[in-house]
């Protein structure tokens, strides 16, 4: 009986580990908001430091809105979330992937260390 | 044993949580998750974002003045003494941001004091200021192409097989084009955000060698043009003018794409950007490769209080199959909500706002010139390189800069052809006063927000930069290369083309330095005031029209000389002096814009005029902590 419990608990722990290592991982990307295509159909996207262009969507459970993120145009941002393949409806057309945003951080300024 | 169980359980949890928190570098792994044309956009951006560090200026420096050279002001400089024959000269401070990261106002440089000069405190060129805060500054009235369409579409769904996939080939079933008789339903945007499209009937009303003019039923009259109804004379003028522009623009940039996105057979997975192949446009388009001008009431806003603000548009949607053809070619049953290109008209289409053309016929020329340039850029930047480079996405700022410089190239020809077309219909009038008055609100970028209030300033800054760029680095040859190279990123495209056409390697920092110099120092045959024109022996010279694409001098300090109207109506309906006619805004000696310096933006201070006979000035900077990325220059003239 005890061995069964041990085995079950071990299995439970390992399954949690493997689940977390699945493809749908949380990742972070750094870059800025940029617009693509001619007006009046210009579309915002996230341009990473490596040149990838990501369509953006805010996760339903996130405590932010897409407008809030777009209002950060001009700031150097770190987005935290998940990457998905961009579908035909994800804008702008031609984006390398879609980023599901859970949170973001403004990393524009590196504050100086205060002198003691 | 209980302890063993506990340890195993805890170990599992720790492993689990560490996996969740493993923020891996997606970018370095993304190549394995992409398929098909994942090579697209592999260009390395020359403009990565940066984190900057505020610096504390502490250094004292002395430099000798050399005429015609800007003096670089390091962010660490607290006190700067300039020596030389300075009496009577004016001292300016130009601050630039050569990065994509906004520099906060408090991280901009600001002068605290300066000796041996009369300090500048006058900001009288802020004539239309309605608030003591710069943010309240009244921007020049928005005109063209200024709405961001907040379109949302549903999640892609495929509700199952419908029928066997079939190929479509309309090469031999083209529409018979008979003026006054041939009818066709055309998708047009019918709300002010251009997020709703309706399939409305139109009649062919004129034909040119290279175009068809379709007029929606409710925008046509057999009588005198009025309201939103155009007549035969106006339709003929559109066709005739398009043929002129076609010859000039294709000679300059190259022809637009004659291909269209196409599908053969079912789509196994989700429909993505990689699902499409290219085919001859005639396979889907029943109007072949001619350009269709669609005259309609864009946004269905005629006579309404809320206007779309859009006088014309081009959409790359028309380079995709429409919903019916998509479903025929795939044998699947995609829904309208699942397919954003459902409203494709399948071919080359430009949309022209009828009421705008009735009220001012010169708008016809402006709209056609601008929108056709978009059509060419889309074809040559994205379609032409799709097979080899994948889907190249081009910056919005790049698109609009190119189209406005295109207007610049065509303006002299258009003026010579149509008396109703004057400088008041060119970006000289539409954009330069706003650039002079409002440039701190936007860098060389497409700045947008929900209100859309910054977009028109972005247009102005982008045009001013493009006008300077074209005049400084070779005019037509440079712009040809920018349209045709494989860079979608604004500065990558510009830098690559400057190197290709002049052999010079330029950084963004040096481009901005040259630009701000020429904004401040206004001398004949230099910078903005340089006239550029091709000679008849040049390969890009338009022999058919005997036209060398002249770019006439731009004098930012005398815009009224171009016939630009000198008054504008403010938000209270009062006529006020138009701001920005007499040069760029100069903040007073100790000011800085609290909104900061935008990405690829700049800010000008006039520090003061040096006392007669003085041989040195000392400038002390204030308590701001300049960003490590800030590049500032003293310009003394």
CATH names the topology of the domain at 27-106 in chain A as OB fold (Dihydrolipoamide Acetyltransferase, E2P)
pLDDT below 50 for ≥5 consecutive residues: which ranges of chain B?
11-45, 124-161
Q: Which CATH top level class of the domain at 27-106 in chain A fits? A: Mainly Beta
Largest sheet of chain A: 5 strands, mixed, barrel
The largest sheet of chain B, given as strand count, sense and whether it forms a barrel, is: 6 strands, mixed
DSSP helical segment count of chain B: 14
What's the mean pLDDT score of chain B? 86
Largest interface: A-B, 67 and 98 residues
Helix content of chain B: 25-40%
Number of strands of chain A: 5
- Ends apart, CA distance between termini of chain B: 87 Å
Over the alpha carbons, how many angstroms does the gyration radius of chain A reach?
20 Å
Quote the average pLDDT of chain A: 84
Content-based structural category of chain B: alpha+beta
Number of helices of chain A: 2
Enumerate the strands of the largest sheet of chain A in spatial order, edge to edge or round the barrel. 1-2-3-5-4
Low-confidence stretches of chain A at least 5 residues in length (pLDDT < 50)? 13-22
Which architecture of the domain at 27-106 in chain A per CATH?
Beta Barrel
Note the beta-strand portion of chain A: 25-35%
Structural account:
The complex is a heterodimer of chains A (116) and B (637). Chain A is of the alpha+beta class and 116 residues long. Chain A has a domain of 80 residues: Beta Barrel (OB fold (Dihydrolipoamide Acetyltransferase, E2P)). A five-stranded mixed β-barrel of chain A has the order 1-2-3-5-4. In chain A, a hairpin with a 4-residue loop joins strand 2 and strand 3. In chain B, the strands form six sheets. Chain B has a six-stranded mixed β-sheet. A five-stranded antiparallel β-sheet of chain B has the order 2-21-4-19-6, with helices on one face. In chain B, helix 6 packs across helix 8 and helix 10 crosses helix 11. By secondary structure, chain B is of the alpha+beta class. Chains A and B meet through helix 1, strand 1, strand 2 and strand 4 of A and helix 1, helix 2, helix 6 and helix 8 of B.
């Amino acid at each position: 009986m005890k061995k069964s419990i041990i085995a079950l608990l071990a299995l439970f722990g390992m399954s949690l580990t493997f689940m977390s290592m699945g493809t749908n991982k949380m990742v972070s990307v750094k870059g800025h908001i940029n617009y693509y295509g001619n007006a009046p159909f210009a579309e915002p996207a996230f341009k990473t430091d490596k040149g990838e262009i990501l369509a953006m969507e805010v996760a339903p459970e996130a405590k932010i809105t897409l407008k809030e993120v777009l209002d950060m145009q001009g700031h150097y941002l770190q987005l935290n979330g998940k990457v998905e393949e961009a579908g035909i409806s994800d804008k702008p057309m031609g984006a390398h992937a879609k980023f599901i945003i859970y949170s973001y951080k403004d990393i524009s300024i590196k504050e100086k260390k205060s002198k003691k | 044993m209980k302890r063993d169980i506990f340890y195993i359980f805890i170990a599992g949890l720790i492993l689990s949580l560490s996996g969740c928190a493993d923020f891996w570098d997606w970018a370095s792994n993304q190549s394995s998750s992409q398929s098909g044309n994942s090579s697209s956009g592999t260009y390395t951006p020359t403009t990565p974002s940066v984190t900057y560090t505020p610096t504390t200026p502490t250094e004292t420096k002395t430099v000798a003045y050399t005429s015609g050279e800007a003096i670089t002001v390091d962010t660490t400089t607290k006190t700067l003494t300039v020596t030389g024959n300075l009496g009577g000269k004016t001292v300016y401070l130009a601050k630039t941001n050569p990065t994509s990261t906004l520099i906060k106002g408090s991280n901009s440089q600001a002068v605290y004091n300066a000796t041996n000069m009369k300090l500048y405190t006058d900001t009288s060129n802020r004539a239309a200021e309605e608030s003591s805060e710069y943010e309240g500054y009244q921007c020049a009235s928005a005109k063209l192409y200024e709405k961001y369409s907040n379109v949302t579409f549903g999640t892609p769904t495929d509700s199952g097989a419908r029928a066997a996939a079939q190929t479509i080939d309309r090469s031999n079933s083209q529409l018979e084009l008979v003026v006054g008789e041939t009818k066709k339903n055309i998708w047009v945007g019918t709300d002010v955000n251009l997020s709703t499209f309706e399939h409305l009937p139109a009649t062919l009303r004129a034909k040119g060698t290279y175009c068809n003019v379709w007029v929606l039923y409710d925008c046509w009259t057999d009588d005198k043009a009025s309201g939103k109804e155009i007549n035969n004379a106006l339709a003929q003028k559109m066709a005739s003018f398009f043929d002129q522009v076609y010859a000039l623009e294709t000679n300059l940039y190259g022809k637009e794409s004659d291909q269209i996105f196409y599908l053969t057979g079912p789509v196994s997975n989700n429909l993505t950007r990689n699902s499409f192949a290219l085919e001859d446009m005639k396979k889907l388009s029943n109007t072949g490769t001619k350009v269709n001008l669609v005259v309609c009431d864009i946004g269905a806003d005629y006579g309404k209080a809320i206007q779309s603000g859009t006088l014309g548009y081009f959409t790359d949607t028309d380079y995709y199959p429409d919903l019916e053809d998509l479903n025929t070619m795939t044998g699947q049953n995609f829904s309208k909500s699942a397919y954003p290109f459902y409203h494709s008209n399948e071919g080359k289409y430009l949309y022209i706002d009828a009421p705008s053309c009735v009220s001012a016929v010169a708008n016809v020329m402006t709209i056609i010139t601008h929108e056709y340039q978009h059509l060419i850029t889309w074809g040559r930047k994205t379609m032409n390189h799709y097979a080899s480079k994948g889907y190249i996405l081009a910056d919005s700022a790049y698109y609009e800069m190119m189209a406005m410089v295109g207007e610049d190239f065509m303006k002299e020809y258009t003026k010579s052809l149509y008396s109703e077309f004057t400088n008041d219909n060119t970006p000289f009038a539409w954009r330069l006063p706003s650039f002079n008055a409002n440039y701190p609100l936007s860098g060389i970028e497409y700045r947008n927000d929900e209100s859309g209030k910054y977009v028109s300033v972005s247009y102005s800054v982008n045009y001013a930069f493009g006008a300077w760029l074209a005049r400084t680095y070779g005019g037509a040859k440079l712009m040809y290369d920018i349209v045709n190279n494989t860079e979608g990123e604004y500065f990558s495209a510009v830098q690559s083309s400057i190197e290709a056409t002049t052999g010079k390697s330029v950084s963004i920092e040096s481009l901005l330095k040259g630009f701000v110099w020429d904004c401040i120092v206004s001398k004949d045959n230099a910078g903005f005031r340089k006239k550029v024109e091709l000679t008849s022996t040049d390969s890009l010279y338009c022999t058919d029209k005997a036209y060398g694409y002249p770019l006439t001098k731009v004098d930012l300090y005398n815009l009224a000389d171009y016939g630009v109207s000198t008054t504008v109506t403010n938000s209270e309906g009062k006529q006020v002096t138009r701001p920005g006619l007499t040069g760029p805004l100069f903040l007073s000696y100790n000011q800085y814009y609290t909104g900061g310096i935008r990405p690829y933006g700049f800010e000008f201070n006039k520090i003061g005029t040096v006392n007669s006979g003085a041989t040195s000035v000392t400038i002390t900077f204030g308590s701001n902590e300049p960003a490590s990325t800030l590049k500032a220059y003293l310009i003394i003239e």
